[in-house]
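pipeline: protein-struct stage 2 | run 1193 | MFS transporter
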Amino acid sequence: MPLIRGRVLVFAAIVLSAFTLRSAVTSISPLFPRIGDDLGFGAGVIGVLGMVPTLMFAVFGVAAPAIAVRLGLERTALVAALVTAVGIVARSYAPGTVSLVLLSAVALAGMGVGNVVIPPLVKRYFSDRVAVMSTVYICFLQFGTIVPSLTAVPVADALGWRASLAVWGLAAVAAAVPWFAVGVIDRRSRTTTATPVTAPQSESPAPAGPRVAPWRTSLGWGMALMFGMTSLITYSLFAWLPSLLVESGVSESAGGVAVGVFSALGLAASLVAPWLATRMVNPFPVAVACAAFFLAGFAGLYFSPGHLTLLWVVLVGAGPTTFPLALTLINLRTRTEKGSSALSGFTQGVGYLVACSGPLLFGALHEASGAWTWSFAFLIGAVVVLLVAARAACRPRVLEDVLAARHTP
């Protein structure tokens, strides 16, 4: 089978996988009130369900590279899609709160693995088109964040909340189909040729060598903390922006629009960040601009949330451009797919673990003080850490070379 055909299959698989990587999160949150009424839970369980995504992304972000070494990247992506599909569909039949939480965790475990294996798959099959493919898969990830949240309520109104949740299992099954086809082609090619035809020969897996350990480098920690601080701020605002605005006198509907605008700006950032990252030797100025956007938006939301609200939301929405920047740098700061997988797992595992604390601490500081001052101080501290981390992450160097230099006599 021609090489180009194999790449087309992988392209379809990456796009469909990216589209499913947030569906279990954003398809359920708009339905919390009616699901809670049906199953009998309140704000406490909603808080737990809000923590599960980042927790599972963290745990399985760390575990994914080891799984990929054992199964291979393509099989790992296939298993991740199938686990996601099973978890999403099964939780739509959940008879109670505990089963809903546990089955949501299953779906999110699959997504956590998928988060990590997509960047090295891009590196394996599209090393000559890293910027373009990074833009494509991050854009579809953003589409998969926005579309489920927009369709959840209308589908639930028409068919019920269980059907509204279950339909996203079909998307995960659709993502599994091309990965299965890639695996079949690869097995057939191995029986007739010395090497598989689905990946470029120059990008075939490297022989087993020393373990790639990003945690031993400032590059690895810079990537993890840049990603983590971005996610911490983003999830804090997702959780608390509507409440903050409603407290200031903004209507609930306007608060919902604000969250939608904040989410949509992530799509615009996904179009820009990979392009900038591949055209700048050191994209640290992009991180500085993002920090400035964050700080300006925080100032507006703190001092005048009820006036020029859309402007403040646009400013804070431009800040998380460091998210697609970090995902692109995973491939730009590694030489091999093994290095990309290790850096992806460490960046997202540690990053999402850090992000777990964001919504909880932001809310706890507000509850303790009765105002938003300490909550915004917390976010400003996160921006400072983000800048320090971004300086290390953006510096032009390669993970494998840094580790090799450490072991050179």
